[in-house]
Amino acid sequence: MSQQKQRFFYPKLKLVSIVLLVFILIITNKHLNLQQAFAEAIIWVESLGTLGPIAFIAIYNLATLLFVPGSILTLKGGCLFGLFWGSIYVIIASTLGATFAFLIGRYFSRNWVRKKITKNPQFQAIDKAIAKEGFKIVLLTRLSPVFPFNLLNYVLGVTQVSLKDYILGSIGMIPGTILYVYIGSLATDLTRLDSSNLPNTPETQIARWVIQGIGLIAFVIVTVYITKIARKALNESVVTTQITEEK
């Protein structure tokens, strides 16, 4: 195969591959109930003693890549390890899993997207603007549970957001993580704990209200913020185009 054909074929093959992979993962998760399987795996972690935290982090990483919602694993992490260590392990696990997904999205799709947006100055301007404000955007989206965590990992990999800003911005997960771990730490039965069977205490209700409140505020802020920087980027792009045409 000639180099010209390779340059044409391979980016498209990568894109098709990741679209098929995402589709397969979503269908598999829906029909095989991967969430339940991972929840049961966490119960097995309890019997591993000192190796438990390592196994928990590995399972959490895999669940993140497979689009399994992390909330139930976070709750079980709190029940299993307590508030302090549960928070530490979940933060490590979710950050690693999110970073792996980000890198997969970047490796498979970024080149194809870059070639496409070079044909559209407006999209290119927005992409660059998002890259400049990468830390803030990642931070705000992490604060809000409205944005799907697992999907967002892959989507951000396609943008120009730097890996450094992505990892640092992921500290936005910490408040929600600690609150979910706290709710899990209030449970007494690891096997029965799930998102529909939470500890029935005033503390649990307050924690849920706090999570929802923070999430709503962050959602509004990030929506307004992204709209603002996108509009600014588009205006700058139009001005640049006009200056170029005049020359």
TrEMBL record:
Which keywords accompany this UniProt record?
Cell membrane, Membrane, Transmembrane, Transmembrane helix
Domain VTT spans what residues? Answer: 68-185
Instruction: Note the topology in the membrane.
Output: Multi-pass membrane protein
| Keyword Glycoprotein appears in the UniProt entry | no
The transmembrane segments are 12-29, 41-63, 83-108, 166-186, 206-226
Q: Which superkingdom, per the lineage? A: Bacteria
In which broad location class does this protein mainly occur, judging by the first location in its UniProt entry? membrane
Q: Name one Pfam family in it.
A: VTT_dom
Family, per entry: Belongs to the TVP38/TMEM64 family.
Provide the protein name. TVP38/TMEM64 family membrane protein
